[in-house]
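*Target chain*
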Amino acid sequence: MKYKQIIVDVDDTLLDTPDTVQQALNNLFKAHGWDLTDDFKKEFHSYNQGLWRQLEKGELTYDQLRAVLFPSLIKKYYGEDIDGLAVADEFHGYFHDGHKLLPGAKDTLIYAKKLGYSLAVLSNGEQFGQERRLKLAGIHDYFDLIVTSELAGCQKPDPEIFDFFFSQSDYSPSETVFFGDGLSSDILGAAGYGFDSVWYNHRHRKNTLHVHPLFEVDNYAQFQRILQKDFAPDSLV
């Protein structure tokens, strides 16, 4: 068997993150009586993604991200001064209820377990929140190990998060393949640490970093075929 362990990302790999963010914003704005406009959503998504890229590069901390995520935009669109940390915590409370699975995710986890793979999670996120979402989605118990950046104290693609992960895992990097949508976090992180990856590019993004995963797929059916054909356990060879 070429690999024994598959690490899987959570956000926009297993769970539909845009749907989760949309529902969290809906609930937050309803609670405050704010009108959630298309202009706000567009600017929020762009700003949020930029902050997460800074986080991955180590240019700001998670607490700093939380503190600056909402205040300037709420002030700009609604003229209100808010406690940024309090509103961010409220938003993330709603976010941690989001658990819509991407098509084929659960079936693929079941299939991978049937083939004999150990499944693990490595996610940039909060331990309680990500575990809660996986439980709500009905897939938590498929994983033998769940590690978040909060637990590790650092973010993908920092090599230290992989140091922490493999210190908890029963498998080595050479026995492991990473499956995730994040080019800069998942694929670059795995490459930098020296192990293999499959890029789940279901959003059809350009590979601007010129990193080279073993495979690029845009749906779970393709990944299942790779598991059977290219990563086949000895019993299937």
The chain has two domains: 5-16+101-229, 17-97.
